[in-house]
TrEMBL record:
PROSITE patterns, sorted: BTB (PS50097)
Stretches assigned to the BTB domain: 1-59
UniProt feature coiled coil, ranges: none
InterPro entries: BTB/POZ_dom (IPR000210), SKP1/BTB/POZ_sf (IPR011333)
Any Pfam family the entry gives: BTB
Official protein name in the record: BTB domain-containing protein
Domain of life: Eukaryota
Organism: Pristionchus fissidentatus
PANTHER family membership: BTB DOMAIN-CONTAINING PROTEIN-RELATED (PTHR22744:SF14), HELIX LOOP HELIX PROTEIN 21-RELATED (PTHR22744)
Record-linked SUPFAM superfamilies: POZ domain
Listed Gene3D superfamilies: Potassium Channel Kv1.1, Chain A
CDD domains given in the database record: BTB_POZ_ZBTB_KLHL-like
Lineage: Eukaryota, Metazoa, Ecdysozoa, Nematoda, Chromadorea
Length: 69
C-alpha cells in the first residue's frame, strides 16, 4: 500500500474517529494506521483540505471529502 506521513494533531482536530485512534493512552510516536475502504486520492484530498495550504475548497472536493469520511 501507499504511505502518507501526517500529523496526529491535525488528524485529531479534524476527525473524531482519528482523535480516538491517535490520542489514546496506547498510542506511540511513530504509530502506523492502515486505512481501508477509502480511496487513496480521496484521502489525499481530505488532507489537502485540513492541512494549511493553498488548496481551494471546491464543490467537487468538498463533497468527495465529506462522503469518504
Amino acid at each position: 500500500g501507499k504511505k502518507l506521513h501526517v500529523s496526529k494533531q491535525f488528524m485529531s482536530i479534524h476527525s473524531p474517529v482519528f482523535k480516538r485512534m491517535l490520542c489514546g493512552s496506547l498510542t506511540t510516536r511513530n504509530m502506523k494506521i492502515e486505512i481501508k475502504d477509502v480511496d487513496y486520492q480521496e484521502f489525499v484530498e481530505f488532507l489537502n483540505v485540513i492541512y494549511p495550504s493553498f488548496q481551494k475548497i471546491t464543490d467537487d472536493n468538498a463533497l468527495e471529502t465529506r462522503s469518504s469520511l
